[in-house]
Amino acid sequence: MKQKTEVRRQKSEDRVKRQQSSILNSEFWIQNSMSHGFSLLELIVVMTIIGIIAALVPPLMTHSLTNLKIKTTVKEISASLRFARNQAISKKAPHFFLLDIDSKKYWLSEKPQPSSKSSMDEEKRMRNVDLIKTIDDEIEVEGFKSNRDSEKTIKEGVVSVEFYPQGNSSGGIIFVKAKDKTLSIDTDIFTGRVRILTNED
Predict the structure, then answer these.
(1) Distance in angstroms (rounded) separating the CA atoms of residues 110 and 40
(2) pTM of the predicted protein model
(3) Domains of the chain: which residue ranges?
(4) How large is the average pLDDT for residues 10-15?
(5) What does the DSSP assignment read for 93-149?
(6) Options 3.55.40.10, 3.40.190.10, 3.30.1330.10, 1.10.10.10; which CATH number does 53-197 get?
(7) pLDDT by residue (tens digit) across 93-133?
């Protein structure tokens, strides 16, 4: 009986020693790892990954920002066209959307397209300055295609879309571009409805 008790005590002591040894080994490994830090290979791998991410992010952000700008510009022009149509219907008088392709400005008027540069400047002065909007520098107005001459694209000067009290219009398509992305704004001649079209449409 006494011998069995002695055996159990010995086993218990051996188990405690093994646990203590395991703990000491773990502490040594942690201290050793902390003192040595990262290896050169690990640092090279991490720096390479950071470099790849840094190279990819700016172009993606620039592309996204350009897409946002052209979409915003097209929506604002479309909103102005729709507002001109609503004004023509509510006031029962023709209203005009005018676009200066060269200066990239557009505005609304109850008068038709001015016949000269000086009369256009006077027309602008008569208008509330808030109603004259400027298109962002990164956005290009590629041109305007009138329904009167669908084969020709006007690339300079002042163009106009006229809206009538019945809701119809003179129609036309405005082409807007930013880098490799082109959108167009189509005003229907019969209904005066305004649609935004992509390259695929």
Answers:
(1) 73
(2) 0.65
(3) 53-197
(4) 64
(5) S-EEEEEETTTTEEEEESS---SSHHHHHHHHHHS-GGG-EE--TT-EEEEEE-GGG
(6) 3.55.40.10
(7) 999 999 999 999 998 888 776 545 544 555 555 554 346 78
